[in-house]
Design a protein that fits this description.
Blueprint lengths: L3 H29 L1 E4 L10 E4 H10 L5 H18 L2 H10 L5 H11 L3 H7 L5 H11 L5 H10 L10 H9 L11 H18 L3 H13 L5
Antiparallel strand pairs: 1-2
């Protein structure tokens, strides 16, 4: 296996332009409240707009599910659909993409509508780790990974998304002892290991996540 630092440096040479482009799309959400995502050439989806609320819904969709399919659902539902579609219509769209928990996720998205103002205020926070605690406490369907995912996607640079790709990368690299379950303690241990890599390579957590995801999947998504 290629050592982790060497693998990341290779990925930087290959896709730094795409990573910078994606980071700017995230920053637009934080600064302007709206962005346009373009995932070509990694995914055959036409560019589409997302706002803060639709991004929060996307992160509900992708819990234990593929990011690529979550992107396709987000593109189809659209900004207004997440805010206004009735439960049954949301369910039908999510189910049509093969989501295992289509009704559960549709219900959580409808419930999330009551927290739109809360989400908009969270984006104004300065400290991503403090914002994450508030999200985990408040949002049904958000654990540490989902809360970190949302925060990264709305422009925060200081939280890590410990999903199966990232945890496997850390375990295989010997940077963290392999675990069967990602508890809060393990999550924070993995995040600390990633922070050390960030320091060594002068990267933010958000950039590093995209590079590791690319190493594991060959795609720069979100």
């Amino acid at each position: 296996m290629i050592p982790p630092k060497e693998a990341i440096e290779k990925a930087i040479l290959q896709v730094s332009d795409k990573v910078k482009e994606r980071i700017q799309q995230f920053k637009n959400l934080k600064q302007k409240g709206i962005t346009t995502f373009d995932f070509k050439p990694f995914l055959d989806v036409q560019p589409y707009q997302a706002d803060i609320f639709s991004e929060a819904c996307f992160c509900i969709l992708t819990a234990n599910f593929k990011a690529a399919t979550g992107i396709k659902i987000q593109a189809e539902v659209g900004i207004e659909g997440f805010k206004n579609y009735p439960l049954e219509k949301l369910y039908q769209i999510i189910q049509s993409h093969g989501h295992r928990f289509a009704m559960q996720r549709a219900e959580r998205i409808v419930a999330l509508r009551d927290l739109k103002e809360f989400l908009e205020n969270i984006v104004k926070e300065k400290d991503g780790k403090k914002a994450r605690e508030k999200l985990v406490e408040k949002v049904n369907g958000y654990g540490y990974k989902e809360a970190s995912h949302f925060l990264r996607n709305v422009g925060f640079d200081d939280v890590a998304i410990i999903d199966r790709h990232i945890s496997r990368f850390l375990f295989e690299s010997g940077l963290v002892k392999p675990r069967k379950t990602i508890t809060k303690k393990v999550y924070l241990e993995c995040e600390e290991a990633l922070e050390k890599i960030c320091q060594d390579l002068n990267l933010t957590q958000s950039e590093l996540d995209l590079y590791i995801f690319y190493i594991k999947t060959g795609k720069v998504l979100k």
